[in-house]
Structures are given as C-alpha cells and as structure tokens.
Amino acid sequence: MALEASGKYTNSALRIGDVDPYAERKAGEFIGTVVSNASVNDEYKHVVLKVHPHALRAYAGQMFHLLCPSPDGAEVWMRRPMSVYRVDKANGQIEFLYKTEGRGTLGMAKLGVGDDFNIAGPLGHGFTLEPSWKNIVVLGRGVGLATLAPLSQLAAEQKVGVTAILSARHAGVVMSRDLFAGLGARVLTVLDTDNTSAVENVEKIVEGLIAEGKADAFFTCGSNRLLKLMQRLGKKHNIPGQVAMEQIMVCGIGACYVCMRTFEVDGEKVLRRVCRDGPVFNIQEAVGW
Amino acid sequence: MVDLSVKIGDITLQNPIQPASGAFSWEYNDVIDLNRLGALVAKTICREPRLGNPTPRMAETEAGIIQSIGLPGKGIEYFVDHIVPEYARFKPPLVVSVNSDNIEDFAALAEELSVPDVDVIEANISCPTRNQTGGNFAMHEDYTRDCITAIRAKTKKPLWVKLSPNAGDIVSIARAAEAAGADALAIANTFLSLKIRTDNFRPALGNKFGGLVSPALKPIVLRMVYQVAKQVKIPIIGIGGVTKAEDVVEYMLAGASAVGIGYAGFRNPTALVQIIDDLEAWCDERGIKKVTELIGAVKDADMETDTLAAASIGV
Ligand SMILES: Cc1cc2nc3c(=O)[nH]c(=O)nc-3n(C[C@H](O)[C@H](O)[C@H](O)COP(=O)(O)OP(=O)(O)OC[C@H]3O[C@@H](n4cnc5c(N)ncnc54)[C@H](O)[C@@H]3O)c2cc1C
Ligand SMILES: Cc1cc2nc3c(=O)[nH]c(=O)nc-3n(C[C@H](O)[C@H](O)[C@H](O)COP(=O)(O)O)c2cc1C
Ligand code: FES
Description:
- Chain A is an alpha/beta fold and 289 residues long.
- Helices cover 19% and strands 31% of the residues of chain A.
- In chain A, α4 packs parallel to α5 (224-237).
- The longest helix of chain A has 14 residues, at 144-157.
- Chain A is globular and about 55 Å long.
- Chain B has nine helices and 14 strands.
C-alpha cells in the first residue's frame, strides 16, 4: 500500500530545485535521488543521495529519519533513524553507512541509482567540539563508526587532532579508515581475530594517548563495552566525553516519547528522548545497555 | 477560495485538520508552520510526573504499529507553567488532553487546566493501555456518564471526550457522554493489541499490550463515526487512519466535523499541512465552497438496510 500514491495528492517533501517554503526551519522532509548504493563489505552498504540544499545543514552526530522502501511488497510502517555519515556540500550530497538488519534496511539495500528516497531531518543534537580541545579520541565499533565518521570532518574544519580507534571483528569489516585517514586522523585498528580489540588492550592504548596529551575528549558509539571503558577512564583522568545512543523511534521530532532511554544525572535516574535530547549525550550520564 | 472553517461547539477551527493527542508537540514547528493547523492538541497530561512505560514502546506489525507509551509527562504544574506557554505562541486554539484513573481527581485536573491559554479540555477516558486489563472509563456507559458529569461540573471550557474503539457499544457510550455535558466527541483512540516475538517468545512491547495504530483501522472507526453521528447532536472529531485529504472527506461525509491525525504525521512530518492544502484543492475542483457542506453528506438515504443485519449493530 503506497500511502502517498493517491492520484495527485502526494506529499510535499522537497526535491532538488524546489522552492523551500520552510527555509528558516531546522528540519524538513526531502526526496533525495540515489547516486550510488554500494556494498562496503559483507554486511554494510553505503548510500549517496543528491538532496535539496536545506538537508545539507546536517552536522556530525545528527540523524535523518528515512522512509525505507519495502523489501517485499508489504508496508514498512515507520521511518528508520540513521546518522549522517558524510555531508558533501560541494556536490550537494548526503551519505549514510548502514547495516542490513531487518525489513527497513533490506528495503534500503534495494535502492537503485536514480531512485527517490524520502528522508526527514536533520534531527537531534549532534557532537560538539569545545574550543579548548586540541586533540580528541574517537573510539567506535561496527555501525557506530557511521555515526562517528563525520566527527573527522568537523574536527578537520576546526583544526582539532583526531586519533580514531576502529574496532572490528576481523580485518574485512573495518570501515571508514580511509575517511578518517584522509582527513588527517591517526587511525588505529583493533580486531577480535588477534585479540587487540580486548578491553584491556584498548585501555592500554587510550592510557598511552592520555599520557601523550592526545586525549582532551572522548567520543564513542556502538559498543557497550567501549562506553563503559570511556566512562571509567574519563572519570579517572577527568576527561569529558560524548556518546551517541540508539533507541527505536516513531516521530524523531520529540513528540511521541517512544525513544526514551535512562540516564543518570547526579545520582538520579532520568528519562530522555534520544531523538531530541540526543542522540549525542554526555558520556558520564549515559547508562549502558 | 474554499471556506475550510468548521465549528466545534463555540470554537471555530480555520480548517478541520488537527493533530491527535500524543502524536504531536510544539516541536513539530521545526518542520511545519503550526499556525496553519485547525487546532493544536497537547499530549495527555496526568497530575503527577510520570515516567511512562518500559521500552520498547513501539513495534511494527503486518498492518501498522502497536505502541504503549504510558502517558509520560512532567505533571500538571510543569504543564501549565511551561508547556501551555509553548503552545500559546501559536494562533490555533489549544486543546489540552487530560487523564486520571480517579473521577474526583479527573474533575479537579480539568478545573486546574481551565486557564486562559487553554481553549478546550479533552477528557482522554480511553487510553487502552492505561492499565493492564485495558479498562477505562470509556469502556462502560455508567463510568463515562459519571466521569463526564463530574468534569462538566468543574469546568466551563468546551469539553471534548475521547472515546474508545474497544468498547462493545460505542453508540451508547457516546450518548452517555453527550447527556453528561460533552461538547464534542473524539472518535476514537487506539485498539488494544498484542504482539509476541517468535524469536524469544516474549511480548514485543515493554508494557505487553499496546494500542494498534494503522490506516487499516480507518474503515472501522469511520463506521463508528457514522453510527454515532446518527445518534448524537454534538460534533464529532474522527480520529484513526487519516493519511490523505480524501480520508478527511470520508470522515466528514460520515458525519464528522473535523479529524485528528497521528500516524500520518510520523510517516511524513509535513503531512498535516499537505492534507490541508489537498483538501482545499479537492473542494475547489468540485465547486464545494464550504467544507461544512460535506458534514454528514453521505448519500445513503435510498439504500435499503436489511433490518435483520442492521439490528445487531444499531444502525
Ligand atoms: C540515532 C540513530 C542513529 C543510527 N544510525 C545508524 C547508522 O548510521 N547506520 C545503521 O546501519 N544503523 C543506524 N541506526 C540503527 C538503525 O536505525 C536500525 O538498524 C534500523 O532501524 C533497523 O531497521 P530494520 O527495519 O532494518 O530492522 P528491524 O530489526 O526489522 O527493525 C524493526 C524495528 O525496530 C527498530 N529498530 C531496530 N533496531 C534499531 C536501532 N538500533 N535503533 C533504532 N531503531 C531500531 C526499527 O526502526 C523498526 O521499527 C541508528 C539508530 C539511531 C537511533
Ligand atoms: C505514539 C502515540 C502516542 C499516543 N498518545 C496518546 C495520548 O497521550 N492521548 C490520547 O488520547 N491518544 C494518544 N494516542 C492515540 C492518538 O491520539 C490517535 O487516537 C491514534 O493514533 C489514531 O490516529 P491515527 O490513525 O491518525 O494515528 C497516541 C498514539 C500514538 C501513536
Ligand atoms: S521518536 Fe518521538 S519523541 Fe523521540
């Protein structure tokens, strides 16, 4: 059932070239055109969309809410939240890196070059870099790297040094190395296959970076173990940090209270909306999962 | 120019499109112009701060989503001091939805919410997951009458009552609400449902039961609106499965004066404004000058109804 397809009464999502009636608004609904949608490895794909310039306002850590096509003919009812992987202002393009999990992302995987793809956003609060930070440590695993990758862009723009520690099951699924390296980050890869990804080893690496003065702030996403480690090291050395969180969403705008997660602030448990209060939060306030 | 305005009792809406409670907040102003809407409808508020239900709060099914949020909120004091002013910045009338499981408290809440910036009180007596048995005032004629009578005595604001599609005989409950002093009826809330995961044998929602939300429910709710409209004099707001302008037309033909929209605004954040534009175009193309011409204009007077079949559903 195509809900929009009722004769001429379709939705008003902006296509490239459309006059923007909501130019002053933070977010919008856009119909992008697929430029490419290729596999990165066995599990991940990378989709590039040409979009209306309004959508290019997205910055690191923000997300879009994607109206995924159906993989099988039955309806995909809700949008799927996805971090922006890269904003390419020069080419008017926005990119997502995604793992095919269930029906939504399987439908996404079937998008072909030239297809329409409806995205809403940019949504939420992304990462912020304090002017006093000269060097940051980015520690990510799996699809968390999709969320962290645009930090390299932000850091490069603000002349902040980046050490990226990329954790993966095996060498075949290490992602974003080139993206980080291309923007001048120092990239370290840790793997399950040779046990370098073990928490003790990562801790040793990070302690080394702290000793070198290369860790003014921590950034992480995608792994509970790494979150716990960063919280512990952050407390020990008084280093601030930010973490991007996930939760199932409905509106993505802050209205429905579906996307709640528990946080701990001054010893008290509070619930926050991942879509609007986050998805990026103070690392010390996050509660692992 | 088409006149899209409709009256719900003493309140005039510039058009019949309003969001549904719980599916909307002023934060939608990030994406659309809230001043275009017929009314603004706030999330149901309870007296005390509530965290709401355990997550996950939403799961997809074959024919829509089920959700159980549990009416989270910061309590009535915060609501009046901080949330009402957020809505008061915009022009459309503000409808405030309220819920309690105790009649005296419900009435007292309605009184406390009757502040100048609030234009309408909507008594949500139908949240399907407010307790685990799915029970609520709108499940029973007597409870509905007692609850609405008590609220009516405590507020002079226009009082809308949101009914449950889970009640056996919604017509009797609608009549009870009208007799107790309701100014309008919102029909309907969500359908009590369950999803069980086959990978781990557990209910998919943290609260076990949830309310089904789906365009597939529109024909069922439309039937309820049609039946109730024949039996009450007060206006009806049709809520359930509106995703396009023709759905608004359908609800109005069945007897509704306005519609509430939830799901469509999740799917397309710009949907509400789009539906207003499309409704205007739809009327214009057909030479309909006033949208109110559509209310109850279904052409069925010449249709023979089988009395045996009709009797059981009370048409
Ligand atoms: C802020 C944010 C950023 C994200 N960024 C990325 C990204 O860049 N790349 C990427 O591959 N994935 C990302 N995810 C996860 C992505 O949203 C889920 O993988 C996706 O929703 C799964 O949908 P599905 O239909 O394929 O899977 P299914 O498992 O079939 O989904 C079923 C339901 O669960 C929901 N769901 C399942 N997993 C998640 C999850 N982790 N988060 C939120 N909802 C979920 C779906 O929305 C859907 O309603 C992000 C999630 C959030 C909240
Ligand atoms: C996430 C969510 C939260 C809701 N919260 C409320 C609520 O607080 N109060 C209420 O009266 N109805 C609530 N509802 C029900 C809606 O107001 C509406 O009746 C229902 O979604 C049917 O309309 P739709 O088909 O247009 O979505 C909620 C629905 C959803 C999906
Ligand atoms: S998804 Fe609706 S509040 Fe976050």
